[in-house]
Amino acid sequence: MVRSRGATPDDSAALATPEDLVPAWLAALVLVLLLAIAVLAGYLIRGLLVDDGPAEPAEMAVSEWQEQVAQDPDDPDALLGLAYAMQQDGDLEGALAGYERVLGIDPANQGALYNKGAVLLALDRGKEAEAVLWDVLEVAPDHVLAAKSLGEYYIGQKHYKSALTALEPVAEARPEFADLQYLSGYSCEQLGLRDPAIAYYRKALEYVPDHVGSREGLDRLGAAE
């Protein structure tokens, strides 16, 4: 009688059944999942150790733009990107300084000019913002956002004639922007200019039929259709 010998390492593969073998795709999937868990654990551990959470998108954008600026401190596009990222992250003073750096290199940069005005408005520095936004319109006479910001600023101050001065040329050049039509109409309404106000409100509704402010304006003026 032949006595069976114990299985050696070389024998184990030969003794395994097809059901015992792990498919290659399954082994690869398990490895990927383990790596993902390890990366996630690293982020969680970092948050626990430094007592903060994972970086917010705005913070990450600031870091990325800072790296680009470090590579070329005189690149206006990189400086503009960094300033905007700082603005989005809530660092208004830092953003303002960044826009100033861009304008030092490119005084007519529309993005830097407009965003500088927007930051100044957010900082309640209205007079400075007013001057900067007019600079935008001097560089780009049909700049919709600059006209809208000025219009809203003047309406907030109840300076309706000044609002029309800022709004009307751009509203005429870019009639598809219903907000400009509405703000122009509202300014006319406050000045007692009924017919022009109605015309502006109706023009806004041509492009945005459900523009609430314009419909309410027509209701106030007894001109609702």
Architecture (CATH level 2) name of the largest domain: Alpha Horseshoe
What fraction strand? under 5%
The separation of the N and C termini measures 109 Å
Q: Biggest sheet: strands, sense, closure?
A: none
Query: What structural class results from the helix and strand content?
Result: mainly alpha
Number of domains: 2
Secondary-structure element pattern, one letter each? HHHHHHHHHHHH
Mean pLDDT across all amino acids? 82
Q: Give a count of the beta strands, DSSP E runs of length 2 or more.
A: 0
Name the CATH superfamily assignment of the largest domain.
Answer: Tetratricopeptide repeat domain
What integer value in Å does the Rg equal?
31 Å
What is the 3D form? elongated
What is the quaternary state of this protein? single chain
Q: From the 3D structure, determine the CATH topology of the largest domain.
A: Serine Threonine Protein Phosphatase 5, Tetratricopeptide repeat
Note poorly predicted spans: 1-22, 25-54
